[in-house]
Amino acid sequence: MIIRVMRIIIFVKTFRKRCMMRTKRLWAVILVMSVTGSLQAQNKIEGSLKADFVSSYVWRGLHLGHVSLQPELSVGWKGLSLAAWGSVGLSGHTEDHKEINLTLSYQTSGLTLGVIDYWNDEYDKRFFYFKKDGTGHAFEGYADYDFGPVSVSWQTFFAGNDYQEADGKRAWSSYFQLLAPFRLATFDWEAAVGLVPWASDYYSASGFSVTNLSLRAAKDIKITDSFSLPLFGQLVANPASQDFFFVAGFTLNAF
User: Fold this and answer.
1) Which residue of 119, 121, 167, 210 is surrounded by the most CB atoms within 10 Å?
2) For the chain, what percent of residues have pLDDT higher than 70?
């Protein structure tokens, strides 16, 4: 009887030990699969193509065009992103200019660092012309940090067409912005305050100026079970120039 009891005890201990070993192996396999999946997701190259149709082109409180088509193509990998953005006027107005912006940026956690090449054909229609006497390019470096409830960004032009007409010296035109996203009444909202810290012909500012007070609302409108149309509206005030704008538009997402 005692021998049988001892055999049962030994069997239970052995069975329990084997179960524990198999459980550890199972968790190890799950852990490896999870890490592998995460690394594969990080290594995956992602891209997007979309286009905005806007009633007018307003940027940082400045009116730069009328009814416009603004396509964007971007590709990203491991926090590194390369994007091309453009704007072309659809109204035939003489103030509308063709614009192409190229952006190279890197994002890690809440910090984004980048360089943007702005080009438009207002001063020269040659894209590959970079001389000081009339290039259409202006190069800007920027840093943005997203704290969650609010993001803070600083942009400064460091090369290209950014000179003061009075003395011909580089202006180092800069722009500082606070942006707060929030959700209210089924809409996605963004409130922004932007300012120019010193004199800049680029921003038509003679000194410290608040150039952008804006409120934007966006909502996806369901058209069919598989297609929704993102609509947005934005109120923009420029206290420095005494301008006020209302912009409306929609976005088409290809992928």
Assistant:
1) 119
2) 84
